[in-house]
Design a protein that fits this description.
By secondary structure, the chain is of the alpha+beta class. 20% of the residues lie in helices and 21% in strands. It has one domain (4-104): HIT-like (HIT family, subunit A, 2-Layer Sandwich), CATH 3.30.428.10. It has a 5-stranded antiparallel sheet with strand order 1-2-3-5-4, covered by helices on one side. The mean pLDDT is 96. Bound molecules: guanosine-5'-monophosphate. Guanosine-5'-monophosphate (5GP) is lined by residues 4, 15, 27-31, 39, 86, 92-95.
């Protein structure tokens, strides 16, 4: 299986990389909704949270810790930020390779739509 994010991981298409290790890559969102909008993406291809299994628990946890680290590096940890994971079409997911949105740098009222 493949995704646009797999192509970015393989360097077949460009992206601004904010962080990378053996398990995870973090890139700037191409269409940011806030001054800071970074996607934390596992290198393992998992289409949606519905496809995650017990063995992915550490990987999913690591995504949150990478988000925390980037938020700190960007200087928004104190002020606050939002982590979002859309699941499926009805949840607003458009790229079917799980990713955590790190959004910060503007007032973030809670929105459900
Ligand atoms: P979703 O709606 O699936 O939760 O979020 C997908 C996100 O991926 C969107 O915010 C969209 O702007 C971003 N995106 C889609 N294609 C690309 C791409 O080729 N490069 C980058 N950097 N971001 C992308």
């Amino acid at each position: 299986m493949d995704s646009i994010f797999m192509k970015i991981i393989r360097r077949e298409i460009p992206a601004t990389i904010e962080y990378e290790d053996d398990d995870v890559i973090a890139i700037k969102d191409i269409n940011p909704i806030a001054p800071i909008h970074i996607l934390i993406i596992p290198k393992k291809f998992i289409p949606t949270v519905n496809d995650a299994v017990e063995a992915d628990a550490l990987l999913l946890g690591k995504m949150v810790l990478v988000a925390k680290r980037i938020a700190s590096e960007k200087g928004v940890a104190e002020d606050g930020y939002r982590l979002i994971m859309n699941v499926g079409k009805g949840g607003g997911q458009t790229v079917f390779h799980i990713h955590l949105h790190l959004v910060a740098g503007k007032n973030l009222p809670f929105e459900t739509a």
